[in-house]
Amino acid sequence: MSDTRRGRTRSEAVRRAVLEATRDELAAHGYDKLSIDRIAAAAGAGKQTVYRWYPSKSALVAECVLDGYGFPATTPVPNTGAVRRDLRDWLGAFADHLAEPRSAALIRASTAAAAESDDVAVRFYNHVTAASEDALTARLRNAAPAAQPESATAAAEALVGAMLYRLLVRQPATPEFLDSLVDTILCGIQGMGDAESSNLTPDC
Fold it and tell me: Dihedral of CA 197/92/78/180: which sign?
């Protein structure tokens, strides 16, 4: 292996170490108190190297989000034929993830960075929020193919938005809240109750 290639390998290893350190820094201190100096020290990188690659905190967080550090892949929504139960089970698993202190801290920090930077906002949406919304939209469209496509999209956005809002205001997504959220969303989609005969829908 040539020296050039070895140098590139080391650079990629350092980059990943910097992103991992950024993830840990965000989880421990949040976005406002994120320290490039601490990140460089934890990654074993020179401060000037980090500053050269990432001229701002938001640029560093943007790449951290883009590479998926701290954000697990979104799972498809189950399709058992009972849309209410499927949504409830998926949201329950999502709530469990949001309840983990590290996950909660990372998402709060990322949303703070998104509020400051359009680039972070776009990347956070494309690589975190949109994946969850797409999974929910696909399940809702399958449950009610005759409904307007926009209805399923709006319902998916409302579900994800409600969960993230609950996290940001530090209120737990209790089982009672999840039940009420799902019932409210299903009531808002015309024809959903007739879409799947095995579905237990609320009285709307």
Answer: positive
pTM over 0.70: yes
Count of beta carbons in the 10 Å neighbourhood of residue 50: 22
Mean pLDDT throughout 137-147?
85
Residue 72 CB burial class (10 angstroms; 0-12, 13-18, ≥19): exposed
CA dihedral 152, 93, 120, 38 (to 10 degrees): 180
Q: List b or e across 74-96, with b for residues whose CB sees 16 or more CB atoms inside 10 angstroms.
A: beebbeeebbbebbbebbeebbe
Radius of gyration for the alpha carbons in the chain, expressed in angstroms and rounded: 20
Q: Name the residue with tokens 């530090």.
A: 170
